[in-house]
Amino acid sequence: MRAVVQRVTSADVTVDDQIIGRIERGLVVLLGVQTGDSSPDVRYMCDKIIGLRIFGDADGKMNLSLQDIGGAALIISQFTLLADVRKGKRPSFIGAAPPDQARLLYTEFCDLVLSAGVPVATGQFAADMQVRLVNDGPVTIILDSRGSPA
Fold first, then answer.
1. Residue 146's pLDDT is what?
2. Per the domain annotation, does 146 fall within a domain?
3. 55 carries an active-site annotation
4. Which entry of 80, 93, 130, 140 is annotated as an active-site residue?
5. Is-catalytic flag, 80?
6. Per-residue pLDDT tens over the stretch 111-131
7. CATH of the domain at 97
8. d(Cα 43, Cα 146) in Å, to the nearest integer?
9. Measured distance CA(131)–CA(123) in Å, rounded
10. Residue 78 annotated to the active site
């Protein structure tokens, strides 16, 4: 799994001109599922993301996690994170998991974050979405469950 995680003061996602998900302070998680991903990847990403100490403490140091601040997560499925652009100009998405598998693992991830006590808003899987956010900092972190840099 690959994720782009952004610390935000607010964010929302729109489909067909209707807001379907909205959060205030928290994280926007753009999540891509790779071929071969499974439940251990989901667990790793969940634990890593909700535990990231990227929110300021009383001294202004990045020392608090999403759980520590009582923040929320807006989780958006984004297969384009798996784009391979090493050859040519048109991205290849051969590394992205098939839609049925990706949907299952995306849903498992959302459920796991929610079960950890973090309020979750989501986009709509496989829809054309518009995501608006106010990146706080800006703080943006790229994660990969396989340990390789994204």
1. 87
2. no
3. no
4. 80
5. yes
6. 999 999 999 999 999 999 999
7. 3.50.80.10
8. 12
9. 9
10. yes
